[in-house]
Amino acid sequence: MGSEGNGESGNSYGVRFDYTNTPFLFVLELEQVDETFRPAMGFVQRDGGVISNFTRYRIFPNSSWLQQADFGFGVKLNTSPGGEIESERLDVPSIDFVTAAGDTFYISPELGREVLFEEFEINEGVVIPIGDYATRRLNFGFQTSTARLLGLEMNFSTGEFFTGNRSSRM
Asked: DSSP 3-state assignment of 167?
């Protein structure tokens, strides 16, 4: 996809490969967005390159209470237009359980890295300095079956966030 405007032109392109089969799932995505790319509608969240992969293995245990268990592994790498690493994320491994009743439970440890090449103001007066930040996070939660009359979903995430810590509940 190309764009033109203000005397500049830029390109954006990507490719995605999916292998969706049981027990294996494999997804690979590659994207590239030029610095000068200006979409005709909407916005570009981040220019540069993206490489992401997610792989899952699903088992169906012979159990009266457990319908399936998924074991996943994911990697995501964002680069600047010049090829410098801006962020990395590694999900090692995520585990999802689905009960015979259809309730879902998951836990997903995450290792990450963010590189800031310039200061970043996340809120008025709150500035994250230039640096290379490693993060470790733990995400977990559950969701009741959609077959139930009343449903409930809870998600929790906790871990490092740049120069501090961050927890969220939903």
From this structure: strand
Task: List pLDDT tens digits, range 42-75.
Answer: 767 778 899 999 999 999 999 999 999 999 999 9
pTM: 0.79
For every residue of 135-146, which 3-state class applies, written as one string?
A: EEEEEEEEECCC
Write out the two tokens for 31: 């994207």
Q: How far is CA 26 from CA 17, 75, 118, 133, in A?
A: 8, 12, 35, 29
How many angstroms separate the CA atoms of 3 and 80, rounded?
19
Q: What is the mean pLDDT of residues 152-168?
A: 93
CA 21 to chain centre: 21
Place of tokens 């640096």: 131
- CB proximity list for 56: less than 8 A, separation 6 or greater: 24, 25, 26, 70, 71, 72, 73
89 close to 112: Cβ distance less than 8 angstroms: yes
Band (pLDDT 50/70/90 cuts) for residue 92 is: confident
CA dihedral sign, ordered 162, 163, 165, 170:
negative
- Kindly give, in sequence order, each residue whose CB lies less than 8 Å from that of residue 108, ignoring residues fewer than 6 positions away: 72, 91, 94, 95, 138, 139, 140
